[in-house]
Amino acid sequence: MWESQSAMDSLTSAVRSNIIPNQEYLLQGSILDVYVEVLLHRLRGLCDNVDSGPESFNDHELCFTLRGSNTSPQMAIPLRVRRALDVQDAPWQLRYVGQHELGGRNRPTLVRSSLDVACSNTIVEFLTELGCRIDFEYIARGYMFRKGRMKITVSKIFKMVANKPGESVEPISQSYLVELSVLAPSGQNAIAEDMRIFAEQLKPLVELEKIDYKRLIHVP
Amino acid sequence: MQQREEKQLESALESIILRVNDLKSSIAAMIFKVENEYDTMNWPTFLDNYALLSGHLTSLSKILSHDKCPPLRNLTILPLMLSPERDEQLAQVTEHRVSTFAHDIVPDYLRTKLEPMAETKMNQLEHKAASLTYDNAQKQVAAYQKVVSHIWDIVSKSREEWEVESSSRGNAQQNSNVADTDMLVAAVSMGKGLKMVGNPNGQPGPTGCMVPPPGRPGSGPGPMPPSTQPMTMNKAPSAIKTNIKSATQIHPYSR
Amino acid sequence: MGVTILQQFPIENRTGPATIELLTKRISALGAVQQGHFLVDCETYSSVANLGPPRTVHVLHNSEQPASCFSILDTGTKTIPLAADGLFDLLMLKMNYFYQAKKQTKAESKGPRFEIGDFCVKLGTVTVSQNFKGILVEVEYRPCVVPGMCWELIREFMQGVLGSSVQSNPPPYLATRMQENYTPIDTIHQYLEHFTMFRKSPGMRT
Q1: The domain over range B1-75 is classified in CATH as 1.10.10
Q2: Distance (Å) from the C-alpha of residue A132 to the closest C-alpha of chain B?
Q3: Which residues in A lie closer than 8 A to residue C185 (C-beta atoms)?
Q4: What is the CATH number of the domain that holds C127?
Q5: Which of A50, A148, B200, C193 is the most buried (most CB within 10 A)?
Q6: Any idea where this protein resides (chain C) (predicted)?
Q7: What count of CB pairs under 8 Å joins A to B?
Q8: Over the stretch B142-190, which tens digit does the pLDDT of each residue have?
Q9: Residues with Cβ < 8 Å from A110, sequence gap 6 or more?
Q10: ipTM above threshold 0.95
């Protein structure tokens, strides 16, 4: 009789029919500052948003974890908040990023579960009061490109020296971080192949790879 | 003997026709693409098509220069009968491009000599060359050779430079740095090197890194940071190292 | 989006459906036209012991904002509202280990939705874990977003439909925000206040 279905019911059916983009396919790499112009030029030629030019961004990312007093690290929930420093009215982005799976040799990209939720600017206070602790934060400035469903970001990562974004920031390396990613419902592995082909076109300027995070624990 | 030559000619013609047809169909395919798929076609596909064309051209010229290929220029074609009537068979063979084998078009299609205008021009030049004195001709040739060899020098010199440069770039892989990649990925994924440097308390606190009140901090995004200041960059690694050490020793969240 | 006032309508000795029918008749007589149904629901999660001081997260949906999910975090000393995409529900499920849904507390208000001129009226039957609890009437005046500028008008309209049960003062939640711009989260706050009261009240006959 009721026309209105509860929000939870429709969400459950969306989950069941597997239309919720909850998997992130990811390739990462970097390029030295001096060559970034060459890369941007190449991306401008390869990507969709040719007419409008690349979209620049200046974001502040805060990384939280939700964990109890005696919970094991595996149970802790990582949550990230990202906000645009250059567009004041844009919604804030809340993001859950799960464990990444490297997969076998024949899987071209890293895959990790991911949930992206746009939200109001009360999110930081909300998370803090929820029991989340901030782990670290950084500023990412750079350019975003699109190619079909693929997203390519070229970003400079800064650490915040004083605790306020925008005041005094310090680049953490002499390279730009380059990321190629797609957010898709699970099981759409064909997109990974598209990403591999796209990554091929950026060689030898940038080597986009599946990066094994376990190896990074030992990075100095 | 003659029979063998004929056979050779036949097979050569056959393979030439085959190649020409290949070339023709790929040109047609490319024209079709440019006309009908111009809004979806991307640069790599276009280049692929182009590569296909040049491949066909190369194989065609290989066949023509092959030593098994009989010297085609020694052969003659004699039009035996011209007719203003429409020739269905001819039309079919030529895909309706040529429908009659008539006197007005045959000279164009079967011409082996130069165009009359070009021919008179050639004659004039040849006449002029023949009337030159030997010394004069020698002088001109020498001058010309000098110019050519000079240009040759310039070209080969720059080619050398270019090759050296590109090979050195290819070997050194200076576009990106694996250590930088690892460091950047470790930073954004695990916070390596980002955990609260310069906080006077030394410990991250939930209030220490709060978001500032709304309102744009100073300038907008501004231009992208140019090459980073060498001063801070030289210092950065050591600061990061010590910070990680302290972060692992006293973990802020374990109680 | 305008200003919304939510209030309980006493059912006296009628049943729930009879009360809805009565109100439907009254409002249809004024010329209101039914435009579908509405649904507001609320699920409440509480923190587990090892997360420190107890906290509660209320997650609400309103069919008027179908792509959104509203949360109100109650720490005991303050409340923090959050408006988010519908996917926030999935995130709540991820936090299952730390925040668990309270059993037997799922509250809903649903029923017919009417439009009459600049007003939108919703007659909601409230249930808490399927048990009938009462009737909530929502009246929205759509051309205006500042409560202070249209409260008198809304009150007069409500008194015309609901009679003497209408208070002469705005609901306490709105009273402190009369000059601010009204947003969807304010409606959510009002629903949560009523749901909380209904959860405490004993069951009603249907």
Answers
A1: no
A2: 9
A3: 120
A4: 3.30.310.180
A5: C193
A6: Nucleus
A7: 173
A8: 999 999 999 999 999 998 888 887 766 655 556 888 888 889 999 998 8
A9: A25, A26, A27, A28, A100, A101, A102, A103, A210, A211
A10: no
